[in-house]
Amino acid sequence: MRRTFASLIIVFLVAFPASAQPQEEKARTVEMTLNPAKAPEPKQKYQLLPKAQEQSDADALPLYEKAVKSLPKDFQREQISPWVKAPLNKLPREQVQSTLQQLGPTLQLVAQAAKCKQCNWPPFKPGALPENLSEYRKLAYILALQARFQIAQGQYDQAISTLQTGLAMARHLGEGPTVIQGLVGINIGGLMCRQIEEFIQVSGAPNLFWSLRALPRPFIDLTKQMELEMLGPDVKNRTRLVMNRLDRHIAALQCIEAMRLYAAGHNGKFPKALAEIAEVPIPGDPVTRKPFVYTRTGSKAVLEASAPEGATDKDAMRYELKLIE
Question: What integer pLDDT is reported at residue 6 of this predicted model?
């Protein structure tokens, strides 16, 4: 039974990378057009996880279960996937708004659950697959769609609140007793990071450098779950890589926000090297344990990181950046 469960984990690791794009086999390349933006005042004005004073002592799990049950019976993730992947300027806003209104009760329950300090998952049972994992992915896609709609509407505070909910749900899943729950959480965290990529490209969006820096590292830690399930070394190594890859995603976004911050104080220009950014500390790459590779050519810049030894090309990362002139 344990071998069967480990096999499910291996299938999940292969089929659902943290980037939430299973078809990718090459390094993920993201083109971004940025506006310079100073750090907000105060620095911690925006938070990507619920603040302590906003959290309740309630148990999140019953609320998540109610949210899952509140989904329309005929709802499938594929219904909204094209909208989650479409450019913001091509969102069919009236249709999206109508869909989100129909999903309002579900969204309210998830938001309540995300603000709970604890999520009391059932104890680990060897060989037993946790319930409703695919439903949590549906909830994540709904949150991603809501964030995209809010970003497109220029509703920055509301979008940050939605991102909080998604990232908090990812953390709750990461605290579950099984590795598969944690991998779903990592997947959801990657999906939320993609919405942050959209957020920081919109004119007028606040700089999220300090918000990203305040996130826990690692964002999701599955060390205890891997030991409990007695996984083999290959599965453990791949799981650690996926964990670190989400942290890399967060760190890369933090670097990009540092570049936006630098440009705001240096005539709208990128630095020649990341070391020139003295205003804020620059994180390294959590996967390779080395600095991110950065190059600047005129008004354009590239931020990238290679795949670690023994990994595939899809574990590499590349951002091609330019500033609005």
Answer: 55
The strand pairing partners of 319, in sequence order, are 30, 303
Task: Determine if residue 269 is left, alpha or beta; phi over 0 gives left, psi from -120 to 50 gives alpha, anything else beta.
Answer: beta
| Structure tokens that stand for 272 in this block | 């020649």
Nearest to 23 by CA among 87, 85, 88: 85
Q: Residue 287 in contact with residue 244, Cβ under 8 Å? A: yes
Residue 19: is its pLDDT beyond 50?
A: no
Q: Residue 206 in contact with residue 37, Cβ under 8 Å?
A: yes
CB-CB neighbours of 300 under 10 Å: 12
318 closest CA partner among 242, 256, 238, 227: 256
Q: Which amino acid makes up residue 269? A: K
**What is the rounded average pLDDT of the residues 91-109?**
97
Q: How far apart are CA 58 and CA 150, in angstroms?
A: 28
Q: What is the pLDDT of residue 10?
A: 53
* pLDDT at residue 28, as a whole number: 83
Mean pLDDT over residues 112-128, rounded? Answer: 89
**Contact (Cβ atoms closer than 8 angstroms) between residue 177 and residue 121:** yes
Q: Which helix (H) or strand (E) holds 7?
A: helix 2-15
- The whole-angstrom separation of Cα 73 and Cα 44 is 40
Strands 293-297 and 28-34: unpaired
Query: Percentage of the chain surpassing pLDDT 70?
Result: 91
91 token code pair: 């969102």
Sequence-distant (≥ 6) Cβ neighbours of residue 132 within 8 angstroms: 64, 65, 68
Q: Strands of 4-71 (E only): list them.
A: 28-34, 56-59
Supply the pLDDT for residue 4.
46
Strands 116-118 and 56-59: parallel
Looking at 80-128, which runs of residues are DSSP E strands? 116-118
